[in-house]
TrEMBL record:
It holds the Pfam family CT398_CC. Residues 65-85 have a biased composition (Basic and acidic residues). InterPro entries: CT398_CC_hairpin, Oxidative_Scav/Glycosyltrans, Zf-RING_7. PANTHER family: PHOSPHOLIPASE C-BETA-2-RELATED, SCAVENGER RECEPTOR CLASS A MEMBER 3. It comes from Janibacter alkaliphilus. Residues 14-193 form the CT398-like coiled coil hairpin domain. This is C4-type zinc ribbon domain-containing protein. Residues 204-238 form the C4-type zinc ribbon domain. Residues 65-94 are annotated as: Disordered.
Length: 249
């Protein structure tokens, strides 16, 4: 393939642009904030799930407490009515004796129910403390997610700004290079991890960094200036420079 030597030199500038764009894209995909944000989001979701479970459990305990308080209140009301009847002295001796026995039974029942009530109240207090703690944890996790989101967006915006700046002259540069040479460059670049053209400096390929053997160097030295040469090792386009170190033709 033939191409103006000046066009071949421009490939090196084009490669510099494409290499920097590739580096920016690599940095964009691997921002530290991305992994940190993912971790923080996962942690927040876990805390939120724990909070939902704690709130559900607390709601159940509060209903249980309502029932326990209602049971105690019913027994107290019944005992108050019986005590009032007993204090009035109305009724037969048998009835009054029965009331006395019922009051004793109600007192034991009330004591048992109050023990249950206290136990449920303690569980409710513990549940409220856990909900309060988890709410604070969730709020802190949310704040961290929001902060990391801002940091990520700022970092991405800066990379996007740089990318636009780097890419701005690319189209104009490409328009000054032989389309066939650009097409070859693009094919080689796609097949070679993003590096399609490399300078030949001090007998070394700038792509694979290997030193060319004397036979290959001699062939390049004898090749016309407009001939597009390739590295025998990595197949990239080799652009001859003033520092190529080629033997005299």
């Amino acid at each position: 393939m033939k191409a103006d030597p000046e066009h071949q030199q421009r490939l090196l500038h084009l490669q510099q642009i494409d290499t920097r764009l590739q580096q920016i894209d690599h940095a964009r995909a691997r921002l530290p904030q991305l992994a940190q944000l993912q971790e923080a989001t996962t942690a927040r979701a876990a805390v939120a799930d724990d909070l939902v479970r704690a709130e559900t459990s607390l709601s159940d305990v509060r209903r249980e407490l309502d029932r326990a308080e209602s049971d105690v209140a019913q027994v107290r009301d019944r005992a108050a009515r019986d005590q009032q009847r007993l204090d009035s002295g109305q009724g037969s001796a048998k009835d009054l004796t029965a009331l006395q026995h019922e009051l004793e039974s109600l007192a034991r029942r009330q004591s048992d129910l109050e023990d249950v009530e206290i136990e449920v109240m303690e569980r409710a207090e513990a549940g409220e403390e856990r909900v309060s703690t988890l709410t604070a944890d969730r709020d802190r996790a949310t704040a961290q997610v929001e902060e990391l989101t801002r940091e990520r967006d700022a970092a991405l915006a800066e990379l996007d700004r740089e990318r636009a700046e780097v890419a701005a002259p690319r189209a104009d540069l490409v328009s000054t290079i032989d389309p066939a040479l650009v097409a070859l460059y693009d094919r080689v670049r796609d097949a070679s991890g993003g590096l399609g053209a490399a300078p030949l400096v001090q007998r070394r390929c700038g792509g694979c960094q290997l030193e060319l053997n004397p036979v290959d160097l001699g062939a390049i030295a004898k090749a016309p200036a407009d001939e597009v040469v390739r590295c025998e090792e990595c197949n990239r386009i080799l652009v001859r420079t003033d520092e190529s170190g080629l033997p005299a033709a």
